[in-house]
Specification:
Blueprint: E1 8-13, H1 14-24, E2 27-32, H2 39-48, E3 55-58, H3 62-74, E4 78-83, H4 85-101, E5 105-113, E6 119-123, H5 128-133, E7 142-144, H6 149-166, E8 169-175, H7 176-180, E9 182-187, H8 242-257, H9 260-263, H10 283-298
Helix pairs in contact: 1-2, 1-6, 3-4
Length: about 300
């Protein structure tokens, strides 16, 4: 079946649900490199991409993978990669490039125990520090943390939507247990899935400012300079200008900070009369919820 969306109720793992969510969101380019516990995402995309007219490519490493995804984004495709902690470390320089060039894309990080090669088949959650501060310089980025297989599907779609709205890399920050867990997933019909597509410029090429939304892509007749150097709104490098650096970095940060109330989503449970709140994400949130429910029931 050559379907972009497998409508209905399915029993699948978190990694497979993530791949299906990406396809439902319109992802048509996947560049990756095998790594436990995210390999199943690449395997699914390798099979499914040809079915929907998309492109799958396995690069030589994670650095090449994120570079290919940035290029695909600028070529007009919704693009994604998937990795785990060691690969996520290798991607950090190009994540900074994607922030600076405002390339919308999605990075899936199925976290495992570290440091170094660590525990490839065991869960971890420590990559939250890399997600926020992994690349150098001042920047803001978005990360969503699913706690169920259903959320692996739903939040992957949300990652693509946020990437397109704010022209920023968005991270799906899951852990090994959620990635490998099998649960029931409900996939709605395509017309019930909210999809945000890229805004295109409505001005002639000579009036277009390339690094302020909307986004023109390569091959569409808009000739512009995309660079990781400090630049003005036309994309021209301004590496010795304090004013341009200040203006650029503030804009890159403010487009996320000033929309935090629209971006941040927190599931609040049993807080009506709470004196102490437990904050958790990923698989730990499920254990925390059970512990809180037991404590309220028993008075312990």
């Amino acid at each position: 079946m050559n379907r972009a969306v497998f409508t209905g109720t399915h029993f699948m793992s978190g990694d497979l649900a993530c791949a299906e969510g990406a396809l439902a969101a319109g992802c048509r380019f996947f560049g990756g490199y095998p790594i436990t516990p995210a390999t199943e995402i690449a395997e699914r995309m390798a099979r499914r991409m040809p079915e929907v007219g998309g492109i799958y490519i396995q690069m030589e490493d994670e650095i090449g993978s994120i570079a290919a995804v940035i290029g695909a984004s600028y070529a007009g495709k919704k693009a994604m990669t998937a990795t785990s902690g060691p690969g996520f470390s290798l991607m950090q320089e190009n994540i900074g490039l994607a922030v600076m060039t405002e390339a919308p894309l999605v990075i899936v990080d199925i976290m495992r125990g570290g440091p170094s090669t660590g525990q490839p088949t065991m869960p971890g959650q420590q990559d939250i520090m890399q997600a926020k501060w992994g690349s150098h310089g001042d920047y803001e980025i978005i990360a969503l943390a699913p706690s169920s297989v259903q959320e692996m599907f739903d939040l992957t779609i949300e990652c693509f939507n946020l990437a397109e709205i704010y022209r920023v890399p968005v991270i799906l920050l899951a852990d090994e247990i959620i990635g490998h867990m099998w649960e029931r997933v409900k996939i709605p019909p395509p017309d019930e899935i909210v999809i945000v597509n890229r805004k295109k410029p409505k001005v002639p090429p000579n009036e277009y400012h390339p690094l302020v939304p909307p986004m023109a892509c390569f091959g569409e007749g808009y000739r512009f300079h995309a660079t990781g150097l400090t630049h003005d709104e036309k994309g021209e490098p301004k590496t010795v200008s304090i004013e341009e650096q200040n203006k650029l970095v503030r804009r890159l940060c403010d487009k996320i900070r000033k929309n935090a109330d629209k971006i941040i989503k927190v599931e609040e449970v049993m807080l009506e009369d709470a004196e102490v709140a437990v904050i958790a994400y990923g698989i730990a949130s499920r254990a925390a919820l059970s512990a809180v429910a037991f404590s309220r029931k028993t008075g312990c």
